[in-house]
Amino acid sequence: MSDEAVSSRGVGVPESRRPYVPGQKLTTEYPLIDSDPHIKRVIRYARPVDYAEWGAITAAVPAGFYLLEKFSPSFVGRGAYPPMFRLATMLGFTGGFLALTTNSTLRFLGVRENQRERDMDMREMVDKVKKGEPLYGVSRLSDHHQGVAMRNSRYSTFFIHVMPMFNFVNHNQHGVDTAKYYQQAERELEAEKTTTDGFLKA
């Protein structure tokens, strides 16, 4: 077939290319780490206080149901209590998880203090550079579909109370200059080489 692309409009119809429009950048108090972090990184970078909050929310919702039943009985019978408390626990568990992911994601975006996460990110990415691994994982998607995935989940944490959405896709569009990782890896490799040479000479 010629250079004419097969598009959704039919065979032989040239595919029009849309101009690239960069994503909106937030003005934040702290440096950006990742504008669309993978859900695995979000959970892995969460702080102990986030997990404590998750547990507290999980326990608070059924406790609230218990207090309501204590001071304002529904008189539904004891048989209704087990499913009611199972539902309350599930609601608390889900709400706590959403709170954890929101707190962690806001640090990635630079909305909250994120020195710990910046150090973790630099260490993780530099180690990947040294091993020759892709920074953000391997993706079988085209650049176009990676962009679609990014636009679906980027900044979704600000709308999580209405429609929870997370990034489950490895893509290459994270809003940061990755050159810093390669520069740091180069500095570390040079330092390691200097140390090794000095040890051999000694």
From TrEMBL:
Keywords: Membrane, Transmembrane, Transmembrane helix. The chain crosses the membrane at residues 51-68, 88-110. Residues 28-113 form the NADH-ubiquinone oxidoreductase 21kDa subunit N-terminal domain. The keyword Transmembrane applies. Residues 122-193 form the NADH-ubiquinone oxidoreductase 21kDa subunit C-terminal fungi domain. Pfam families: NADH-u_ox-rdase, NADH_u_ox_C. It comes from the Eukaryota. InterPro entries: NADH-Q_oxidrdct_subunit, NADH-UbQ_OxRdtase_su21_C_fun, NADH-UbQ_OxRdtase_su21_N. This is NADH-ubiquinone oxidoreductase 21 kDa subunit. It comes from Rhizodiscina lignyota.
